[in-house]
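**User:** Everyone, produce a chain:

**Assistant:**
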Amino acid sequence: MDIENKTIWITGASSGIGMELCKQLAERGARIVLSARNQERLMEIAETLPGGRKQHWVVPLDLAEADKLITLVEAQLAEIGPVDILINNGGISQRSLFVDTDLAVYRKLMDVNYLGTVAMTKALLPAMIERQQGMVVSISSVAGKIGSKLRTGYSGSKYAVVGFMDCLRAETAHQGIQCLTVCPGSIKTNIAVNALNGSGQAQNKDDESIINGMPVEKCVQDIISAIIKGRDEIIVGKGISALAPTIKRFFPGLFNRISAGMEYR
């Protein structure tokens, strides 16, 4: 799909992969709808994009409030017009052992990472189908392909996103809709710093794998390339974080032994 002159709605646009997507897509001539909770930060980012606030829109929202998203999004469409590409990027991670993690943390992870994705897609997909064109991109994770310690909630929510997108792709294959699932490995963002601990608070520390991960600029370049090429699914990353799904697929016993033996603390 071409990027120029397309309207692209991006959640989680205030930092990390989402913010970099806004920058690179706007540089390619796209009109961006920036969404996240922090309206002030979104407005600052929008001002830095080519065309500034005159060409792009800021729509603050909270993915944890899935029940409100459909009405909120639909109310903006009269001003924004048709949305060509939805990028479900917003999300949160987790770093805690299952036995130490409150049930409320699992609920929040599913609300934000999974139900937020479903609600945004529910709001924007019907108009795409009516026009017989459009694209839904959902940022899952390598954790949506393989499991590891300290991520039972995060991995479960990202597995759900992968399954949702597989089903959506099958349902819309003959309606002019493209569905791309992106599974990043270790990318240099604040995802680990903001990851929830067992009580639902940010752990406020980085992971070594993230510190040594792929630069976010390169990650976004790969995502945009996949959008243009109309890919169905990609894994983005370097080193073991990118190879892990392949190792698990072809050598599941080996992968399980490696995963069980790795220490994260």
In short: The longest strand covers residues 177-184. Residues 146 and 245 are 6 Å apart (CA to CA). The radius of gyration is 18 Å.
